[in-house]
């Protein structure tokens, strides 16, 4: 349970810009824990239950589940003396059912769609657009993937490997396969993406985003170092235990190991490592409530004392007020434009809360690597609105585009118009 708590802290996976465990209920946020659950069930050779968990993960988000699927199939079909082939094939029934169900859902879905060509290559225009808006998919982009970031993953993999070597004699074959195999897949995803996307321009690769597999390096580094720390603590080796625990707590506090370290963050990591050793010692002494309290300390110390905030606080009373007004006082088919938001995220939150359309916003462009038709339309709208750089003389152009309301900051108040909504952060104007 303590090792689970350490991994549940989550960590930023720099480069792909994801978390090992997400806060929001997105498909990937459900798929990864289900796949990890399937891993544990497979390690305990409960193949049917593992197949069900993995099938659910596959239905939620197939690219996340796919690396787990490969290892699961290999182990499920591994020959055993007392099992025939037909019995081993039954273990794959849940996965096969998930594939069939997903194919049926894709075939009968309603609404507009865009045909995909599996072996298509990116056109030069689409490549430029994706490199601009989704640079995290392109490892040759040195701003999204600087050399220091590649060094970070190399260091993290070495730490993971050291913990694996320390634990390998206490691990089953299945656990060794997952614990080392998945991180190796993560490391290999970097050169694979460079070859398939950066060099060959294979369009499907930017949709699958294979470099997200690099999160396995961060996740299993936390898992194995925490396990090595518990092992050392139980064996009365406090210095080794504290060292392993410090490495386990480092990813949530220091997402990129090659970045400069802060004194506050380093102190919190070392303090938590000491607390972790004490928690295991108390658990060994049958003082579970005290051990539990210490084990949960990291959930409060990292954001509270180390002041690590992975995402800015975007939900504000002013945005709530604007959304409530729009939802109750404007037509359902009204189109809004946050004219001076730039690359800010407010428009997307407003879209969800107010249930009103946005003509274009930066965050919405994150889908350019999936749909070529959408990508061209998003880029056209982004240019039409001058990339959200507001100028009052553009009002007639906004109206001609079908935009019914513009939202600006108080610094861009219009002198010749009266806002239909006003708060400390937002002014909304109706357009004829």
Describe this entry's structure for a reader.
The protein has 432 residues and is mainly alpha-helical. It folds into two domains: 267 residues, no CATH class; 114 residues, no CATH class. It has 19 helices and seven strands. The strands form two sheets. A five-stranded mixed sheet has the order 4-3-5-7-6, covered by helices on one side. A two-stranded antiparallel sheet has the order 1-2. Helix 8 packs parallel to helix 11 and helix 11 packs across helix 13. The longest helix is centred in the middle third of the chain and has 27 residues. The radius of gyration is 25 Å and the shape is globular.
Q: What is shown here, in short?
A:
59% of the residues lie in helices and 5% in strands. The protein is mainly alpha-helical and 432 residues long.
Number of domains: 2
Q: What class, by secondary structure content?
A: mainly alpha
Number of helices: 19
Our Rg estimate from Cα atoms comes to 25 Å
Q: Which sequence of strands runs across the widest sheet?
A: 4-3-5-7-6
Largest β-sheet summary: 5 strands, mixed
Q: How many beta-strand runs?
A: 7
- Residues in β-strands, percent: under 5%
Low-confidence stretches: none
Question: What portion of residues is helical?
Answer: 55-70%
H-E order: HEEHHHHHHHHHHHHHHHEHEHHEEE
First and last CA, distance: 61 Å
Q: Mean of the pLDDT scores?
A: 93
Q: What coarse outline follows from CA principal-axis ratios?
A: globular
């Amino acid at each position: 349970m303590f090792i689970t708590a350490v991994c549940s802290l989550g960590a930023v996976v720099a480069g792909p810009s994801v978390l090992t465990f997400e806060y929001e209920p997105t498909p990937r946020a459900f798929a990864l824990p289900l796949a990890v659950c399937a891993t544990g069930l497979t390690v305990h050779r409960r193949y049917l239950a593992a197949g069900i968990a993995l099938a659910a993960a596959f239905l939620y988000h197939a690219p996340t589940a796919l690396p787990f699927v490969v290892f699961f199939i290999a182990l499920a079909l591994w020959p055993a003396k007392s099992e025939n082939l037909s019995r081993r094939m039954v273990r794959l029934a849940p996965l096969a059912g998930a594939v069939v169900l997903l194919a049926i859902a894709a075939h009968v879905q309603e609404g507009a769609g865009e045909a995909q060509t599996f072996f298509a290559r990116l056109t030069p225009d689409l490549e430029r657009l994706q490199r601009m808006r989704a640079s995290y998919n392109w490892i040759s982009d040195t701003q999204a993937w600087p050399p220091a970031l590649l060094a970070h993953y190399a260091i993290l993999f070495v730490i993971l490997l050291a913990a694996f070597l320390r634990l390998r004699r206490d691990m089953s074959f299945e656990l060794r396969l997952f614990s080392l195999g998945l991180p190796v897949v993560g490391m290999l995803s970097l050169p694979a993406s460079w070859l398939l996307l950066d060099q060959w321009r294979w369009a499907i690769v930017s949709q699958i985003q294979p470099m997200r597999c690099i999160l396995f390096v961060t996740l299993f580094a936390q898992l194995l170092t925490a396990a090595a720390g518990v092992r050392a603590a139980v064996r009365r080796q406090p210095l080794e235990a504290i060292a392993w625990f410090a490495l386990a707590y480092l990813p949530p506090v220091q997402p990129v190991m090659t970045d400069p370290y802060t004194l506050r963050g380093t102190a919190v990591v070392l303090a938590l490592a000491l607390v972790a050793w004490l928690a295991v010692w108390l658990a060994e002494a049958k003082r579970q409530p005290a051990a539990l309290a210490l084990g949960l300390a990291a959930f409060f110390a990292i954001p509270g004392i180390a002041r690590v905030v992975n995402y800015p606080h975007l939900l504000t009373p002013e945005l709530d007020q604007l959304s409530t007004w729009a939802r109750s006082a404007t037509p359902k088919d009204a189109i809004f434009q946050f004219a001076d938001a730039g690359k800010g995220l407010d428009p997307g939150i407003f879209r969800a809360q107010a249930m009103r359309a946005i003509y274009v916003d930066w965050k919405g462009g994150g889908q350019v690597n999936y749909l070529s038709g959408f990508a061209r339309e998003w880029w056209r709208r982004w240019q039409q609105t001058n990339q959200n750089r507001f100028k009052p003389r553009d009002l007639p152009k906004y109206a001609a585009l079908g935009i019914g309301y513009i939202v600006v900051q108080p610094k861009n108040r219009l002198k010749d118009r009266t806002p239909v909504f006003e708060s400390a952060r937002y002014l909304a104007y109706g357009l004829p």
